[in-house]
Structures are given as C-alpha cells and as structure tokens.
Amino acid sequence: MFEHIERVPGDAILGLIEAFKKDTNPQKVDLGVGVYRDSKGNTPVMRAVKEAEARLLKNEATKTYIGSHGAPAYSNVVLPMVLGTDSPVLEAKRASATQSPGGTGALRLAADFIATQLPHKGIWVSDPTWPNHHGIFTSAGIALHKYPYVDADNRLDFSGMLAALKKIPEGDVVVLHACCHNPTGFDLSQEQWQKVLDVLRERKLLPLVDFAYQGFGEGLDEDAYGVRLLAEQLDEVIITSSCSKNFGIYCERTGCLIMVAKDAEQMENVRSQVAIVARENYSNPPAHGGAIVSEILNDAELTTMWREELTEMRDRINTLRRDFVEALKPYGLDQKYACVAEQRGMFSYTGLTPDQVDRLRDEFGIYMVRSGRANVAGFSHENLPYLAKAIAAVND
C-alpha cells in the first residue's frame, strides 16, 4: 500500500538544526530556530514557571480530561490578558476562549471553523508571513491569497497593504499579526491600525489576528493595541493567542482560540461549533501548560515575577537589535541594516539574499533561513563582532 508514497523535503528550519549540530566550526551561530535564548545560548525555564510547577506538583489531585474548551481557569486569565482587564467586550460577554495545543492548534481550529461555517470564503495572508500559515489554511481547504507587506527595499509597505485590503472581496478573512510580525519584525503603528480598522469595516472583512508574541514587542498591553481595537470596534473577530513564547513553555504547547461575536447569544452559537471542531481535532487539549499559566496569573507574587522576567527578555532582544546595527558601523553597513533596530520581536527580516545566507552558512557557520529571516535572540555580545565581520564579507 505504501510503495507509491514519495519522500518530500523536510522542514527547512528543522533541517537547519541538524546542519548546525554537525558543524564543527567553534564560532558557529544559530539564528534559525524561533525560540528565545539567553546570553549563554540557552532557552531557560522562567523562575515563575518553576515555582508554579512546584505548586502544581504538590497540589495536583487528578489527571482527568479538562473538556474540549479546556480549563475555565485558563480561559479566565487569558481573556483579560489579551483583551484587557476592563474590556467592554468581556463585560458584554461577546468573547469566549478555547484552550488549544499551542498557537498553531488555535490556528487549525480557526481554519476548520472557517471552512465549515464560512464556506467559499477566501483567506488573505501577508507576503511574507509565517510559512505554516500557508499549510494550515490550505490543508483545511480554504483558498489562500496574499497581500503585500514588505517592499523591494525591505521596508514595511503599508500603502501597498492598504490598497490590497481595499480590493479584497467582502466577507473574506484577513490574517493580521498583532505584534512582532513573523518573519519580518515590522509592526503596524496605532495610526496604521486605525486605518486597517476602517478598511475592514468598510469591506465587511473578518480579521483573524495571530497573537503569538504578546509582551515581546513593547509590552503586554502595548502589543495588544490592535487586537483590542478590532475586538471593541467590530462585531466579529477571531484571535489566536499563544502562551508558549511569553511564558517560555514551548514544549507544553499552550495556546487559545478567542472568538468575538456581536452579542452573548451569537457567542454561544459560535462556541458550540468551536467545541465540535476541537473534539474532531484532538478531543481535549493538554492541561499542564494552561495550568502553569493559570497558577502564575492567579498569584500576585508569581505574576510580578513573570512580568519582570518577560521584561528582561524583551529588553535584551531590543538592546541586541541596536547593538547589531552599531557593530556594523565600522564596515559602513549600519544604515543598510538600520531596519533591524526598528523591528520588534524575536525575528528580523535582514534583507540578506539567499546567496548571502548560503555564504554565511558555508564560510562562517552562521545559520538562518534563506529568506534572510534571523532570530535576534541568537545574537550575543560575544558573537556580534563575528557576525558583523561575516556580514561585511558577504556584502563585498
């Protein structure tokens, strides 16, 4: 039965991991895999997470299922974190949360919901976007289209984006990155979010906001500006949230699908359909990651500790962005790569060409995706001089 099955190329980023491991260059640098790293190159367990897990281990009394929508305690802390503690959307009971296996799981729930409940609607993603967006939506049977996001000079093409949004057929779905755009790092300003809102309302488009990096851009509330604006001003919004990154619990796969409807009654209708989608995908979500998040956000001491750690991570990344540009100044390349300091989040669309990326890998042991996307968390004050020298070499 399997004789006809062909081998397909492996995931490009996972392939980088293997190639990096085999590289014997003592100065090798991994800028590929999208996880946070500290100054020693490790992805640490946050202190608040360690303490929360110790409490859970001591007090846990059951391993039973938590239901298709997940644990209510998780929803009760994630909804105000995303939409705001004084959100009029929550007060009106217009939003509900469904715990999911990571942000990816939330996106899959959203895709299947759209495919079954909004048949024949297309979905529009930024060009470029996180590559898995393509796979998730097309595998659900949704027609996928692109709108421009970055121009030929490696700058945010907001005018091109807005012009494209104005031509999208009414009722289609538009995927927007709430903050820390993956892979480019270019985010919308508050003024630009307002203009996007106007077009969404005028064209009767349904926004699906991917919120994978809350807290990694400017701050927990600052990063949520666009999400909260759309949820409060539009009748219907889909939000996919992830706690895997900002709590550093990648392997626990902790996400959430948040649906916003016109009123509480419509929300109950939508919520019932989402439960079916979740049931058909994985029945019940994993519990541990959500329990960690709940334990932290329900305790003032742990919340303070977690916020401080998240701020340290964010400040480190933003400092490394500025230091990277400064390291290129002796080579006369600081202006060319100035955009890196302007971007936000873990990723940077450097503007390096595929050929330059290949040279960095083959000649210097510096690994990143061939699109030129680099994980800024892979920078360190120890490797920045080496990185700058290598980038100068491939810019000759």
From TrEMBL:
SUPFAM superfamilies: PLP-dependent transferases. The lineage of its organism: Bacteria, Pseudomonadati, Pseudomonadota, Gammaproteobacteria, Oceanospirillales. Residues 27-391 form the Aminotransferase class I/classII large domain. Homodimer. It holds the Pfam family Aminotran_1_2. One of its GO terms (molecular function) is transaminase activity. This is Aspartate/tyrosine/aromatic aminotransferase. Belongs to the class-I pyridoxal-phosphate-dependent aminotransferase family. Signal peptide: none annotated. Its cofactor is pyridoxal 5'-phosphate. The keyword Transferase applies. Keywords: Aminotransferase, Pyridoxal phosphate, Transferase. InterPro entries: Aminotransferase_I/II_large (IPR004839), Asp_trans (IPR000796), PyrdxlP-dep_Trfase (IPR015424), PyrdxlP-dep_Trfase_major (IPR015421), PyrdxlP-dep_Trfase_small (IPR015422). It comes from Halomonas citrativorans.
